[in-house]
Structures are given as structure tokens and as C-alpha cells.
Amino acid sequence: xxxxxxxxxxxxxxxxxxxxxxxxxxxxxxxxxxxxxxxxxxxxxxxxxxxxxxxxxxxxxxxxxxxxxxxxxxxxxxxxxxxxxxxxxxxxxxxxxxxxxxxxxxxxxxxxxxxxxxxxxxxxxxxxxxxxxxxxxxxxxxxxxxxxxxxxxxxxxxxxxxxxxxxxxxxxxxxxxxxxxxxxxxxxxxxxxxxxxxxxxxxxxxxxxxxxxxxxxxxxxxxxxxxxxxxxxxxxxxxxxxxxxxxxxxxxxxxxxxxxxxxxxxxxxxxxxxxxxxxxxxxxxxxxxxxxxxxxxxxxxxxxxxxxxxxxxxxxxxxxxxxxxxxxxxxxxxxxxxxxxxxxxxxxxxxxxxxxxxxxxxxxxxxxxxxxxxxxxxxxxxxxxxxxxxxxxxxxxxxxxxxxxxxxxxxxx
Length: 413
Prior knowledge:
By secondary structure, this protein is an alpha/beta fold. It contains 15 helices and 13 strands. Helix 10 crosses helix 12 (327-341).
């Protein structure tokens, strides 16, 4: 098979040879991605290659093994600075119609990576280089912990879904803070998703989250409190407003003390399984505490309407379901939040977003930003770029100068 050719005007043949010899693992990521900017048809060709060749190879491996292989390659790319810069220059859309301002930050595109893939903040710049406008790492806990026993990650291809019960496996807040600090010239907008250490009882949860916030605040563009994962026993009990108020006030005070020179945006991620009355109560609390944002939604514990046979689903056991089956409920929660908070709290939509049409619907329903997770596993690394460019096309076709002008347009009717 002939080697791919880099067509960047500033890379001559000797430079290409040097890149190949110096970074053999990461080069394959860059060569493929850079061709997408040189020949528009190559982007769709890459998608076909991923679905027909790469994905079958990854899907032949146990899900968590496939994830580890992918993360190894991305970590290599993150350390290959020349390739990382060129990949980012090639794949991050530079269209003013995509720029969005939210909670004091300027996002180059509204399409981000959801928490759960880069649990230890080990490859966020590499993820960002593939066209994401921002990357949310974690979930990170104050203490290192192994998570739940394996197997704990399962694919449902017939539903384009995943079931996971990972249990916040990560190396802890101190290790993550040190790792992020080593990136002295960070290019990617970084959200940090924080969870509760499993061994800590709910009565001490506020102190546990505050311990993470103290360590991570200096390195975050925004911080997310995650009390909605179904994989830590009792965690979702913290979504009760009486518990949540104390926790969020404590985190806010810690963020302000850790970074007195700037206000770090504080967001809350909620579950799709909440009753509507509880969603309203959380929305009201977000307004009361002046939270910068709400993320709707996390994974669901429900298993309704799946194409996968019931026996196979049952064999996966407990855990959170993500992907296409969450789409409808996540959209309902988003619409309810928008009705409740209006423009006073920014909303980030996640759950079942697979196409530009999905993302466009969420933005029109009131989302300022959108995040991808499961669809990336099924559709490959160029998905963020495709969705972002599709959003710009849809905005212009609808008569908007930019995507931001369409935020909440359907909710206003």
C-alpha cells in the first residue's frame, strides 16, 4: 500500500520523512487526518475506512481493551508536538459562524467531547486536535480508585449504544492536576468533570468534591460537578436539592479561593432518569446559586425500546446506557430546562447526538454547546469536524449569520 502523502504547503519531502521516522505511531493519525483538509472527498473516504476496517478491528477486541489501544495512540500524538499542531490546524474548523461565547469563554466550535473517554486528562490535546471545540476530561475523584470490577464496558451495536459501569476509575485529582500542568502551552479549552470518591460517604461528599476542586481549579476553563452517574452507589441521592445546595456552595467557595483572580464557571451534570419535578427543582437551584451551566444528560439506567435482544442486554448487567437510545429523553430534559431557566443558565446537550441534524435540533431547543461520546466510537475521529461543519451549513441555510443566533429559537415559539 502506498504511503499517504502530506500536502501541507509548508512540509517538504525531507520534513515528511522526518515526521514519519520520528513519530511512527502518531504519524498514521496525522497523515489520515491531514488529507481531509487537502481533498474534501478524503474526509468521507476516511469515514468509510473507519467503519469498514478500523472499527471491525477495534470491535474484535474487548471494549475496554479497544479503548486502551486508542488512548495509547492518542497519548503518543499528544507528545508528538509537530504532528499535534498540524493535525489541529488541519481539522479544527476555522469558520466564524461556529464561534460561540458561553460563561465567559469563547469556543471555536460548539461541538465538544463529553467526559468519560479521557478519564485522566492524558490525551485532551490530542482529542482537541481532531476538531473538537472543547474537551471535558474525567470523571476525576479526589482520591485515586480502580473503579468497578471488569468486565464493565459493553457494546450494543444494534442500538449504536454502550453500557458502562466503570465506577469513576482514575488516578486521582493530584495526578490529573500535575499532568495538565505539564502542558505549558495548552491549545484546547478544558472542562474538568469531578465525581465523588467511592469510599467517601455522602455525608462527607461536599468536602470530597471541594478537595478535588482545590487541586483542579487552576487548570480548568470550567468545572463540572457530576452527581448523576449510576455507577457509584448512592451518588444520585446527591441530586436532591437539599444535598445539592450544600455541595455546590462548597465547591463554588473552593473555586473562588483557589483562583481569586478569575471566576471559574461551575456547571452541574444531571441524569435523564429524574422526575420532571426534580428537574425543575434543580433548574431553580441553578438560578438561585448562579451556576454557569447545566449539562443534560448523563447515562440512563433504563433499558426501554432496545433492538438488542433482552437476554444479551441482561447479560451486560447494571450500568449506564448511552448512545442513540438516550436521544429522546435527553432532548426532553433539555427542552424542560430551557423552559425553566431561559437564557439565565447555559445548557450543554449530550446524549444520543450522532449527526449534524441531531446537534442542530439541540441548539434550536436551547443548547449553547453539544457534546459527543458514544457516536465517536461508532463513527470515528472525524465526527466532531463533520458535525461542526454541518452546523455551519444549517445555520446559513436557515438564514442565520452564525450558529449562536439559532440557540433556543424553537423554545421561543
